[in-house]
Amino acid sequence: MADYEIFVDRVKKKTGIDLALYKEAQMKRRLTSLYEKKGFANFVDFYSEMDKNRELMDEFLDRMTINVSEFYRNGKRWDVLDKKIFPRLLQSTSRLKVWSAACSTGEEPYSLAMVLSKHIALAQVTIQATDLDDNALAKAKAAVYPERSLAEVPADVKSKYFEEEGSFFKVQPAIKKAVNFSKHNLLKDTYDRNFDLIVCRNVMIYFTEEAKEQIYTNFSKALKPGGVLFVGSTEQIFNPAKYDFEVEDTFFYRKKG
């Protein structure tokens, strides 16, 4: 068995994470640069140390999950969410159940809460936010961000929902309270049900076609009829009907029914 295959097998046994479902060339390149930086010669030696060194294991998970995020990323899509998607969803219910899947360091679910607050009281909002990476979740719960993360945030939102602390910005308590963070593996764990909106952006590009099919199928089952999946700007679904979806807008897919 090749060096990387041994590594994949051992990581799966220890963590439940199946690296075989991630695009191999991308993942190998990313992890090779990490183990070389740490002074290891190959994947097997790297795993041996990772197995007994929690800090190194956390660094591996960080590198694997690519935590790049910002508030209101691709601003025009958030306008569609604000002006079209949320108003339609709120025609049939006064409470929305929303899931920010693979939420990274929290910018996305907090953005969702900020946009939703324009439509309904935050007490009526339940936003579940999940990620695989404990470090990312810890940063998300802290809710303190550098100014560059707020580059696309409208000025009125920035003044209303952030407190400036030195060169950082802290999310207001009312927004923090609207989001519940927890750990979740999209490729392994069970999915909750009856969501009005699922947001999963800029993550699927790292998965194999087999893994994408599995996740889209699970997302479809997790949505209510008429519920919406919001994906990233490089993640258009070319066969939405296969998952019982129809296009509602660019990068927004509505579950039929």
Structure, briefly:
By secondary structure, the protein is of the alpha/beta class. 42% of the residues lie in helices and 21% in strands.
Write the layout of secondary structure elements.
Elements: H1 3-15, H2 24-37, H3 43-50, H4 54-65, H5 75-89, E1 96-101, H6 107-116, E2 125-131, H7 134-142, E3 144-146, H8 155-161, E4 162-165, E5 168-171, H9 173-177, E6 179-183, E7 195-200, H10 209-222, E8 223-231, E9 245-249, E10 252-255
EC number: 2.1.1.80
GO biological process, one term: methylation
Catalytic activity: L-glutamyl-[protein] + S-adenosyl-L-methionine = [protein]-L-glutamate 5-O-methyl ester + S-adenosyl-L-homocysteine
Question: What features would you highlight for this structure?
Answer:
257 residues, alpha/beta, Rossmann fold, 7-stranded mixed beta sheet, 10 helices, 10 strands, Bact_Chemotaxis_MeTrfase
Q: What is the total number of structural domains?
A: 2
Q: Kindly identify the CATH topology of the largest domain.
A: Rossmann fold
* β-strand amount: 15-25%
What's the gyration radius in Å?
Answer: 19 Å
CATH evolutionary superfamily of the largest domain: Vaccinia Virus protein VP39
Structural class: alpha/beta
Q: Describe the largest sheet.
A: 7 strands, mixed
Overall strand count: 10
Shape: globular
The CATH class label of the largest domain is Alpha Beta
Which consecutive residue ranges, at least 5 long each, have pLDDT under 50?
none
Strand order in space, largest sheet? 6-2-1-7-8-10-9
Give the overall pLDDT as a whole number.
90
GO biological process, one term: methylation
Organism: Kurthia sibirica
Domain CheR-type methyltransferase: 1-257
Pfam family, one: CheR
